[in-house]
Amino acid sequence: MSISFTLTAEQEQLKQAARRFAREHLRDLATSTRAETDPAKRAHLARPAFGKAVAAGFLKGLIPVPAGGAASSGIDASIFVEEWAAENPDFTISFAGPLIALAPVYEAGTPEQIRRFVAPFLADSGAPVAVMAYSEPGGSANFDAEPPAEGVRTTAVPDGDDWVINGSKAWASHLPGWDGDGPDLMTIVCRTPGGISLIVAEREHLAGHIDIDKYYDLPGLKGCLTASITLRDVRVPRSHLIGREGDGVQLTRNAFLASGASIGIFAVAAMRQAFDIAYRFASSEKRGGPKPIIEYQAVADALTDAKGRIEAVRLLSWRAMDAVISQDPQALELALHAKVLGSETGLDVINNLVKVVGVSAYDADFPILRHLADATAYPIIEGSNVGVRRRQLQQLLMSPGYDPLAASGMS
């Protein structure tokens, strides 16, 4: 593959189409979402935009070409995610549920499973949602721990031709679905007699068997429909097991590669918006002095440092997304760096840009703090940096024959 850092004509078209949709449909939605105080009501404000995005073909852009979709390039996915997340990251996270929930199906599903489970997300209308039901209210950093540790608490018990699933799940966007009867598809991390496994439940199996225990009122990403739920006697055909019993640990980790890499892009989107705010402020505000504050070295240094770090994280995240989508052997390391370095850089950069603005940034009507609130989530979602991602990096560094130059292609 040749290396170029110039967008192709097709990528420019994708960027403009994604930006146009985001400005026409997601910008005002973000404003409405922040004005609504009820977490369930504000999440439901997104449903009309979901339908418009599906009709415009964006959902198919999350489905790989071999499965009938249009996703062919990690760079394309990065461009799309950045443009949407710049206007409305919560909508983007919710819409991208199939990216994680279907990943194990692509990796280990049978041809029949792939056809069946992907079909709802190839639609040209409606607002289908998919969820990877991984996290649990008591925490899931040690989901793979063996007894006497609890590990995964959700269980799937065989009963004739079915699995009967019971347990609690939390945090993943759209666990209750739009109406409390579940999403169109839920990939459930659970414990079977053969070990930690993945079982796919469809809406028909979930309806009437979900209790909503709590809607989370998030300080950032406010439009995500985030809840804690209890699954009660969810009966799913035995044929909905993905791979074999006991395959769930590796399949789950692999499912979060793309989402981990994408967090770097979400961080870029937040930094990009915060930089624009701080840059315009510094270029026009004198704060009682004789010249705009950008003409003072300290302010200019803060802005230039921020801009350099934004560009660095963007390129790292592009490389990571490209590696994940193309199944590069170095995808794991690159995705982990994009997640950890990207998310923590985003938080640090935006915090420094707040300091450029000064006390005016602390006014709720000033727009920069909402990007800081969103960025605060990125080190702790999609596998927290401390509990999950840095531990994966430690294991990678300790693996036999680890080559520090391999991920860069320079070994």
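the 2nd protein, sequnce then structure:
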Amino acid sequence: MRGTRHRTRSLLTACAVVAGLLVPGALYAAGHVGAADAGAPPAPDPEPSGAECRTAVHGSRVVAYCHNPYPSTDRVQLHTDCARWWDIDADSKPVAVGPGRTVRLDDRCWKEVGSAWVTHSNETRPAS
């Protein structure tokens, strides 16, 4: 019985010593201790932005609905790649999606649609 207590006490002491040696190193590596600019506030996270778009292909037609839940305006543009080599690919005009707004973008091919996607830009340009 006495040997088991001695081993348990030795094991607990060894664990405490190892933890005491590792904690300062971990805090230093995490930048909590000894950092030169410890008083500086953390960098702000960028404001979330960008409309969420859902694209659907029905035969030779493409429809995309884009909703912008954020306070900044997003410019969206629908790109359609037609499956046939002789069918002309198309890009819609960029459309500004204001905060809390939903826009509908549509396009078509003569035959099948190969692929369709929406691009985003946070730049706002005056209407011309």
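Residues 96 and 127 are 10 Å apart (CA to CA). The longest strand covers residues 74-82.
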